[in-house]
Design goal:
Blueprint lengths: L3 E3 L2 E3 L1 H9 L2 E9 L4 E9 L4 H16 L8 E11 L3 E11 L7 E10 L5 E2 L11 H11 L1 H4 L12 H7 L5 E4 L4 E4 L7
């Protein structure tokens, strides 16, 4: 049960929305020992279109749960609201998925871009016209501007070069669109 404390009054998000609080995007804790998941994910409350609200909430949760390595893997993580408008929600999810008998968990870090009008989850290719190879264009720009676009890691592991980035990008690029920018990145998925 998720509870909000506002001015000493205890309200659930549903009660807040019903009391005229309008649309509420709230981070909720989801734990399921049978599926081996423990997540903090956003959910909507108070949308006038309750069918769309249910569709969005299920789509967000199912998309995140689908990041598990395999059916018998565990999934732990959290999502934060990276960018939010009345038509678009961009979530930044990070966590890990561990498969029994594996040496290490897989690190997960990705953007999830949700169209709030119909629940569609956008992929990077959806940001480009059909005849444009967006992935190739991003890789070319990163190669031409290797040191300018490279972000230093807080851990001090800053030895990634364009070659490392391009090789890791074979498994896919993560992206986080903002109001005036597009962050495209890749992280090593396996701990070493």
């Amino acid at each position: 049960l998720l509870v909000l404390f506002i001015g000493g009054i205890c309200l659930t998000p549903q009660a807040l929305a019903e009391a005229g609080g309008g649309n509420v995007l709230q981070i909720v804790h989801v734990e399921d020992s049978e599926q081996q998941i423990r997540l903090d994910i956003p959910q909507f409350y108070g949308l006038q279109n309750t069918k769309l609200q249910q569709q969005l909430n299920e789509k967000i949760q199912n998309t995140i749960v689908s990041l598990k390595n395999t059916e018998d893997s565990s999934l732990y993580g959290q999502a934060e609201n990276y960018f939010y408008t009345d038509r678009l929600l961009v979530l930044h999810f990070w966590g890990s998925s561990y498969t029994p008998r594996a040496a290490h968990p897989n690190t997960l870090d990705c953007g999830i871009v949700v169209d709030l009008t119909d629940g569609h989850i956008y992929e990077l290719k959806d940001l480009f016209k059909d005849h444009v190879d967006g992935r190739a264009m991003i890789l070319r720009l990163c190669k031409e501007n290797d040191s300018k676009y490279r972000r230093a890691a807080e851990s001090g592991f800053n030895d990634w070069t364009y070659r490392t980035f391009a090789a890791a990008a074979q498994d896919g690029l993560s992206f986080l669109p903002g109001e005036k920018s597009l962050r495209v990145y890749v992280i090593p998925s396996h701990a070493t």
